[in-house]
Every structure is written in structure tokens, then in C-alpha cells.
């Protein structure tokens, strides 16, 4: 599936549509500035989270507990699986919803059925792509 976002509001629409399907794990890939955290903020809001969503680039993990448990990770600064173990990565897999920016380093520790979304720039659009099995209509 592909979705072309021309604006912040487009990204909000996509996040809301995906949140309705309640995917337990989302992996978000895309360069710096692609719009990963922006998508995450709208996704969390669509789950009913009212607490402000701040980027976990420096903290690595942010956890939200109401009204559902939602864990937001940014693994950009994690170098290997050993560091992941140190932050207690396995425990976070238990959250109702987990979203990971820069997931590559965790590849071997993730379930196969996680929803993998890539975001790339194309002209003035941001193109979101994910596997067809996760079908939404927009
Ligand atoms: P990332 O987390 O991938 O590094 P951010 O979500 O922080 O990227 O977004 C980087 C910048 O791009 C922010 O200023 C954000 O407001 C802007 N942005 C994100 N998505 C869009 C969009 N769909 N249209 C226009 N600007 C966007
Ligand atoms: Mg980010």
C-alpha cells in the first residue's frame, strides 16, 4: 500500500486510519526529517493519548500509559543488540502498542508480523509505503 502525504494534515489522516486497525507493533523507517515523529504523534493521539508526545531521540524510550499503554522508541543512537538488552527492550514488547523509529538494530528481536512503514521524500510529498496485507482505505 502507498499513501502520499502532501501536508501534516494528510499524515494525521493516515495515522488515524492505521490506528483504527490497532497494530500492536509499527516499525517506522525513513531519513531524518521524513516525518516519523510527526506520524507517531498523530498515531498516539488517535489511540486516545492526550499527553504530549515528545521525540525520544535522546531518551530512546518514552512510555505512555493512558488510556492504553503505548511505547515510543527511537533507536537511532543504539549501536548493537547488547545496548538494547540494557535498556530492557524485551519488556517493552509487552506494551499494547509499540512504535519504533530507526528499528534496524532490533531486527532480530522483533516479531515477523510487525507493520513496517517506510517514508521517503518525493518532490514535495512524503510517500508512506507498507505491505499490502495491512489494508486500509483512505
Ligand atoms: P523525523 O522524526 O522523521 O526525523 P519529524 O516528524 O520530526 O521527522 O518531521 C520533521 C519536520 O518535517 C517537522 O518540522 C515536521 O513538522 C515536518 N513534517 C513532517 N511531516 C510533514 C508533512 N506530511 N508535510 C509537511 N511537513 C511535515
Ligand atoms: Mg524523529
Topology at a glance:
Elements: E1 2-5, H1 8-20, E2 25-29, H2 36-46, E3 61-64, E4 70-74, H3 81-86, H4 89-92, E5 97-101, E6 115-122, E7 125-129
Helix pairs in contact: 1-2
Residues 5, 7-8, 10-11, 30, 32-38, 126 line the site of adenosine-5'-diphosphate.
Comma- or semicolon-separated keywords:
Rossmann fold; 138 residues; alpha/beta; 25% helix; single chain; binds magnesium ion; binds adenosine-5'-diphosphate; 7 strands
CATH class: Alpha Beta
Q: What count of helical segments does DSSP give?
A: 4
Whole-number count of domains: 1
Beta-strand residue fraction: 25-35%
Spatial separation of the terminal alpha carbons: 11 Å
CATH homologous superfamily name? P-loop containing nucleotide triphosphate hydrolases
Instruction: Give the CA-based shape.
Output: globular
**Largest sheet, strands/sense/barrel:** 7 strands, mixed
Estimate percent helicity: 10-25%
Question: Can you tell me the CATH architecture?
Answer: 3-Layer(aba) Sandwich
What hetero molecules are bound to the protein chains?
A: adenosine-5'-diphosphate, magnesium ion
Give the strand order of the largest sheet, numbering strands 1, 2, ... along the chain: 1-7-6-2-5-4-3
By CATH, the topology is Rossmann fold
Report the structural category: alpha/beta
Low-confidence stretches are none
